[in-house]
Structures are given as structure tokens and as C-alpha cells.
Amino acid sequence: MLLTIRNLSVFYNTVVGKFKVIEDMNLDLEEGDIISLVGESASGKSTLGQVLTRMLPGTGSAEGEVIFDGKDVLKISENRMTEIRGTSIFMIFQNPLNSLNPVKTVGFQLIEAARIRRERDHLSTDEAEMRKEAEESLISLRLPDADSIMRRYPHELSGGQVQRVVICMALLLKPKILIADEPTTALDVTIQAQVINLLRTLNKEMKMTIIFITHDIGLAYVLSNNLVVLYSGRIMESGNTESIIKKPLHPYTSGLIGSIPNSSKTSGKLFSIKGSPPSYLSLPDGCKFSNRCQFVFERCMQEEPKLLDVQDRKVKCWLYE
Amino acid sequence: MIENVTHKQEEKKDTQGKLNFYLKMVYKDKTGFAGMIIVLIFFGWSFIQGMLEIFSGMFSDPHLGSILLPHNPFNFNYHISMQGPSSTYLLGTNAEGEDILSRLLYAVPRDAFIAVLVVASAILIGAVLGITAGYMGKMTDEIIMRVTDAFLAVPALILVIAISVVLNATYTGAIIGLMVVWWPIYTRFFRGQTLKIKNLDFVQASKINNVSKIRFFFRYLFLNDTDPIIAYAALDFGNVILTYSTLAFLGIGLTPPIPELGSMAADGVGALPTAWWWAIFPGLAILVIVIGFVLLGDRLQDIISNRINY
Amino acid sequence: MQSKTVLFIVRRGINALITVVILIVFLFSLIHIIAPSPAAMARIYAGSPHVPPAELLTIEKTYGLNKPIYEQMIIYMVAIFHGNLGVDPTYKVPEISLIAKFLPRTLELVIPAIILSVAIGIFTGALAASKRRKPTDHVVKGVYLATWASPPFLVAAMLQLFIGYDLGLLPAVHMVNPLLNTPQNYTSFPILNSIIARDWPYFISLIHHMILPVIALSLISFGIVTRLTRSSMLDIMETDYFRLSIMKGVPRKKAIYSVALRNASIPLITLIALLFAYSVAGAVIIEDIFDYHGMGWFIVHAIYTLDYIAILDTTIIVGLSVIAANLIADILYGVLDPRVRLE
Lengths: 321, 310, 343
What we know:
heterotrimer, C: about 75% helix
């Protein structure tokens, strides 16, 4: 097992008090996997990415175990963690426009990544060699004008170009796990497809394990082989992507799937889950989805369900007990 | 009609809730709380002592003004000239043998009065000019903002000095100088806020109700968007007190024999190596008062910009 | 791009010019409000209320005080742009020569003070940002809030008392040892003069006397730099690109200094004009306390003698230099940071 998460809880301190954004989460990740974390905003999916790289904002704190390569990421020293970041676990962010340092050239930032990889591998850090490597990586990402892009500043590139530059960093760093936090949300649909394809290539050719964080269950279906559905910081359903999409068990998952616009549907009506996710300040007792669930019954509102093994997957719902 | 009433009640409730929230937040932070306590003591003392001073003038009874003070602040006694701090004269005496602590306490209400007057007038002028500029736009906006820029170009202290000296460096001159110089920042602020809300849907909609728009802006900005102003104003009381004490230090705006924090320090600087308490304690008194406002304002700004716990 | 930059500079220049004109009009009206009649104005120019009427008439003639007010205003403005600020009623010499004498001395204080406060401010701000919410952060905040809330005369008096008098380390008053002979006046800057004349004792004495006022000035103004450095570093530390560079495996400390501090220092350029304004205002008090004969000392004396002409002229000169400093800072910022949108 490449990554094991056990009993993970994450807290945030705010003006109005301390609250839990992830509760008691367990998750396993195998090498070469592509796993998707799906959920609405504030479901804790981005927080999970930040915990794995130990980049929680200062107000956050985490309990539990996150075992990567035999080490508990939550307990090792900051220096050890720095060594893990980049070359072992790397994360790309949602908004490409802010992902690069605006006052440094693209080339500088790519070479910096190449240098980190080479220093850790005890390879030569010859400037010209690293520049060549960066340029080649850019070309392999279908950015043919590599030489000119290297000399430009981030604000002179388009969003899609910047996102590919960031993926190029991943290519140079060759991490074991790549966390992609909504990497396509801010992009055009055509460029979205390109980025998704790039991620798939990284997974196939470099054996990179990918954690894909998204609110779009359709994208998750296209890309990943495993799926985790999050709601209010809890796993609602997890298992094989194909089988979940074909036959969702949790009402929330069905709702997510139902809200995908689908031109082949005859009704032409777009389904949406009624209401909005509850604030962490006023979570319902019992099942956290109970106030929006169409199958809700007495027990749901009193007692929170456990994660149950149902068929080939895990579901947190009383319907299946 | 009924709707209107409930709306107003809700508004009132909302403001009250906000106030409670702020108080709670300020209370939670040790430094912000300390600032609030200093500010409360400052204003409380200024009110009581200020009233006594006014009554003492009204009834021409000099005792009334110093009834709460440890000594008579105007008691010349050359036998005890320039005595260091002692149990009788906690902060020492000056060359005339007057008790420095009593003089400090006597001087404080005037600073409170000026701070409130100047900040209030600045908010008022700033609101009128800023909202007009933001609402009218075009030439009006351009003219108002260029004038505002011109006033911001010269350091406030220098411009206040110029204005008050031209007005013969009197007390009124100092106050007018401060009032003339203090409004530009608030004008900029109100203009920005006005521009921000000008295009909101419900502002556009209020046309139909035939509500006078300018009136609406005032109502709206004063009821809903005062938070950043309150935080800035809290800091700004301190700035006014600092600037006024600096003017007094330079001999502007004095009405002898009434003591003034800044002019006490100015007198003391001449006696510096020996009678250090004479210059240093009035300076420290200003420092403590201003730090109260700075801590409170800083905390309020943190709350408003949601930087709590950072 | 190039023409856009030029346009930007021209625009800022025009705005600055308008600001100057408004300022002069305001000060002109101010003095005419308190002296509404030509005779009252003439008394101000004469520097004394007791002047024989015949003399008043000649003054009215020479200054054109009986002309229509708008004409006077234009004459006044043209004169200012020609560097003619009138004759000082107290010293009986052209105002501009007095300012030319005193302003350089103040600049000799203000410029080192700005450099020092930027240095202290960046250092403390970076320290506070990197140790955010730790004791260091709170100590830095406490120190800069305290200096911020201090009246300038308290800072100056404390320095004078402890370092000048108690410890006797540095001279507490004067600009230079009064027993030394002044070197020839090559430039208006005493320090440059002493260097040109190779008068080292004089030079060392000048530097000795400068230290305390410069420290006092930078103490009262470094807080703004600390605050801005800290807050813009914290803002940058929350951006995706900062997090991405840590994500890449750059050690946190290195990222704080090479990314956050570096990027935060660009907007600091705009602060320099503000610091300049702050320090010039502070110099009024500081020079008075340290008996340092510069522009601030000159202003204080004009207050004592109610010398309106000197006060208004110094205000114009200070305004002009602050507007110029602002203009330069604006242009520098626009040129240095390509992202600044050129309006």
C-alpha cells in the first residue's frame, strides 16, 4: 500500500469556535491508482489534499495517521516533510492564474523544479542540461514554442498554458503521488480534455499515482478507476468508479450523478439536489445528508450511520443495513 | 406599512447583534481588551473632569475643577520647584512647583473633546464629499478628488501648522486647522464605498420607489457599511491626539494657564537632563492614550478583515 | 507597451501638476481670507502691524496688492513657478535663499532616516511574517505599535536623555560642534562641503550630531514599513504560487525569503513617498528638540514669530517635494512591476 489513511480528523479554529471539517476518515491508495475525491464545495475534499502534503493553513490541525512510504506524514519533522514534498507527493492547484510566481520567468520556475529532483537524486545540476530537460518536457506536453515560453512571465501566458507548465513541473519532479485539486475548473472545456488526457498519460507512462479532486463526477468517471464521494467531511460512498456510476447506492451519489447535464435524456430537465450543503456550524444530528435526502426516515435524523460494506463497496447509509 | 416597521426593527436588531459580536470579539483578545479599557477610562475621565471644568467656569468656582485631582494644578509653590516623583507628587513637579499628575489629569478632557470633534467632522465632510463624488461621477468626481489629492499631498502636520499659524496660532485656529486637514481620507473611503454599491440591483431598484437617491446612499452607508470606518476612526482618534499634542508642543493652540499635554512636554524638554519627569511623563501619558486607540482600532480592523486568530 | 508607459507617465505628471496648482490656490486663498484688504496684506508682507501708511502703499505697489484678486493669484503662481517666493519679513532676504539653506540640512537627516526605517521595517516585518502568531511576531507588533503611538517629542526626548545625557555617548543638541570653523559653502549640503574641503573633524562632528535625530526620525516612521511588509508577505504566503513553491520541495524558510519577501518588497516603493512626507513632518519636532538648524527648525521659528510668508512658502515647498516623491514612486512602481495596470 502506497498511502494509508487511518482515523483522520481535521479541525479548523475560527472566530466562532473550533469545528471538524473531516471526521474519522479511512482510505487506502495503491500504487498506480487513479482515485477521485468527489463532493460539493466545502465537503472537505481540498482539505484532504492539504493534509496529505501537510499544507493546512495555520488555523487547521489534524489527528490520526497518514502513512506514506512507512512514515507518518503527520508526525515527521518539517525538514523531512520538505524532502517528501515535490519529489514524492506533489499537488497542483485549482486556479492556474495564481499558480506561478508573477515576477519570475517560467523557465526559472521550471528549472527550480528540475534542480530539486536532481539534487535529491544526486545528479548533475548543470544549468544548460536542466534547461534542456525543461524544454523537452514542455514540448512533450504539446507546448511546441518551449524556448519562448521559458523566457516569458506567467501573466503573458493563457490559463491553459500555465496549467500545462504546472503539469510540466510534475513531469520534472516525478512524484510518486500527484494530487490534482480541481485542475480543470478554471479552464475551457477543450483545454479541460487536454489536461485530463495529460493526467492519464502521466499515470500510464510514469506510473504516477493520482488523487483527482473534483466536484464534477463526470470528469471523475472519465479519469479514475476508484471513486470516493465526500459530504461534510465524511466518506459517503467509495469503491470502483465504473460500478458506482452504473449503480449508485447512496442517495447523495445518485443526486450527484443525476445532476450531470445529459443531452440524451429525454426529459431535458436538469436534476439538482435540493438545498445546499449544511454549514459546519450547524450540522444536522444523525446522518449529515438527512436534511436534503429524499429517502430520509426517523433513524437518519437520530443516529449517524457507519460506513457499511455493501456489495463491492462501502456506503454510509441506513438504507443498507 | 407593517412591513416597513418590521424591517426597521430587524435593522435595529441587526445593528445590536453586530455590536454585541464586536464587543465579544474585542473581549476575547487580551490586547484589544486592554485597548478598550484604556479608551473607556480615557473617555470616562474626560467626561467627568470635563464636566467639572465646565461647571467650575460657569459658577466661577476654581475649586470645582480640581476637586477630583490630588493637588491644585495651578498652585504655584516655588519651594517645591522641580521635585522628582515622590509619594506626595507621584509624577514630580515642574519649575513653578505645580503637580504634574494633576496637570495631566486636568489637560486630558481637552484632547478627548478635540479628538471627537475632529474625527466626527472629518466623517461628516468626508461622507458628503465622497458620496457626492461617487454618485455624480464625471467632472464633479474629478474636481472633488483632485482637491482631496491636493490636501493629501502635504503632510497633515505641516498643513495644520500652516492653517493654524495663519489663524494666529490660537486654540480655535488649531481646531479649524485639524478639521480642514482631516477629511480627505474619509472622502476617499466614502467614494470607494459609494462606487461599490452604486451598481447593486436593489440600489437601481430604489429608483422606482422614488426614494431620493442621495438620501438613500447616506442611509445605506451609515447603517450598513460603517464597520471599516469605525475601525479606522478608532485608530484615528489616536492620530488626532498625537497631532494636537504636537501642535501644543510647538506652542500652537494654547490658552494659558490651562495645561496642555504637548506644551507641558515642551516646557520640560528645556530642563531635560535634570528634571526628566517634567518632559517624559506628559509624553508617556499621550503614548498610553494613543496606544489604547491603536490597540482597539487594530483589533477592530482584524475582526472586520476576518484576520482573527492569524 | 512603450507608448503606454509614456502615456502613463504623462498622465501622472499632469495629475501632479493639477494637485500643485490646487494646493497653491488653497494657500493663496487662505492668506487672503485673513487679510481681505490690500492694506492688511501689505502689513503681512512688511512683517509688522505698525508700518507708516506711505510704506504700506509702496508695498502694495511692488506686490501688486491692489490688483483684482484673480490677477494677483496668477502673478503669485507665476512667481512661484519662477522660484520667487517673496521676501522674508523677519530675515529681510528672499525666502527661496532661506529655504535653499535649510532644506538640504533637513534632507541630510531625512534621507538616511528613510533608508534606516526601510531597513528596520523590512527586517522586522519579515521576521514577524515568518514567525507569525509566535512570540516574535507579538513582540515586533508591540514594538512598532508603541513607536507608532509615541509622540515624536517623546522619542526624541528619551533618546536625548538616555544616550545623549545619561550615557554621554552622543551629542544631545546642535548640528555640529559650534567651536569648529564652517568649511566653505560649495554646495548647500554641509556634509558634502566638509568632504570637498577635506575637513574631517567637521565631517565627523556632523555625523556624530546626526545620529540621534536620524534614529529618532526612523523610530517614529519604521512602523508603517513593518506593517506593510508583514501584511503583504502574509498575503503572498497565502497565494497559490507561494504554496506551489513549497509544494515543489523548496524549504519553507527559503521560500519565505526568496518568494514572499522578494515579491513583497516591490510595493514598498510606493511607501517611500509616504515615508518622506512622514519624516519631513517629524523633522519639525525632531529638529526643534535637537536644536538642529534645518527646515523644521526654520518652521518652528516662523511659528513663534507668526511669519506667515515663511510658513506658507515652506508648506508649498514641502508639498512640492512630496508630490514629486509620489510621482517618482508611482512611475518607478509602474516600470518595475509589469503587472501594474496602466490606466
